[in-house]
Design a protein that fits this description.
It is a single chain. The protein has six helices and six strands; from the N terminus they run E-H-E-E-E-E-H-H-H-H-H-E. By secondary structure, the protein is an alpha+beta fold. It has one domain: Alpha-Beta Complex (endopeptidase fold (from Nostoc punctiforme)), CATH 3.90.1720. The longest helix is centred in the middle third of the chain and has 15 residues.
C-alpha cells in the first residue's frame, strides 16, 4: 500500500549502510527504457549499485563506471533502494572488492553486453557476451553472486524487473530501505 512506502534522502546514506542495490524507474518517454519495461512487465528499467555514499556504480550503455548520485536525483526518475539483509563485514568486503576489480578493468572490458540485450528481448537469455554485462547481470555478478543466500534466489540472466520481483518475494533475504522521488 502507498501508506507503507518509506521515502529516504539518498544524500544521507552512510558508508555503514552500503552496499546498496538501487532500481531506477525512469518516467521519461525514452524508447530504450520503455522497451525494457514492456518486455519485463515491471516499472524498473535499470539497476545500479552503491558501495560508497553519494555515488552509484552503473553499467551504462557505453561502459561500467562510478557516477555521482545527483545524476539520478531528478523529478522524472524514481529510485528504489534495497540491500541484502545482515551482511557480515566479510560479505561487504567481497562485494566492495568485486566492484573495485570491475572499476579497474580496461575500458573495453567494462563495455555493455548488447548481445545479452538481444538474448533478453528474444527470450533466449543464454545468448550473451561472456566478457561483458548489462546492468542487472553486473549487479548479480558483483552484489548477489558473492552472497550464497542471495545467489540461490536470483536467476543467472535476470532483467531489472526479474531481480526486483525476486527481491519483493524474498524479503527475508532482501530489505527495501525506501524510495526517492524528487518533488
Amino acid at each position: 500500500m502507498a501508506s507503507d512506502r518509506v521515502f529516504i534522502d539518498p544524500l544521507l546514506i552512510k558508508e555503514t549502510d552500503c552496499p546498496i542495490i538501487v532500481f531506477a524507474i525512469d518516467l521519461r518517454p525514452k524508447l530504450f527504457s520503455w522497451g525494457i519495461k514492456l518486455k519485463t512487465r515491471d516499472s524498473a528499467n535499470h539497476v545500479m549499485g552503491m558501495t560508497k555514499p553519494l555515488f552509484l556504480e552503473s553499467q551504462g550503455l557505453v561502459q561500467f563506471g562510478r557516477i555521482p548520485i545527483e545524476s539520478y536525483l531528478k523529478s522524472d526518475i524514481i529510485l528504489e533502494f534495497w540491500r541484502i539483509r545482515n551482511l557480515t563485514t566479510e560479505e561487504k568486503n567481497r562485494i566492495n572488492d568485486s566492484i573495485s576489480n570491475r572499476l579497474n578493468l580496461n575500458f573495453w572490458e567494462r563495455g555493455y553486453d548488447a548481445l545479452g540485450i538481444f538474448g533478453q528481448m528474444t527470450g533466449l537469455k543464454f545468448i550473451q557476451n561472456p566478457k561483458q554485462f548489462f546492468c542487472s547481470e553486473q549487479i548479480r555478478q558483483d552484489h548477489i553472486k558473492p552472497i550464497l543466500r542471495a545467489d540461490r534466489i536470483i536467476d543467472k540472466y535476470p532483467s531489472p524487473g526479474d531481480m526486483r520481483r525476486k527481491f519483493i518475494a524474498n524479503q527475508e533475504v532482501f530489505e527495501r530501505l525506501g524510495y526517492f522521488l524528487k518533488d
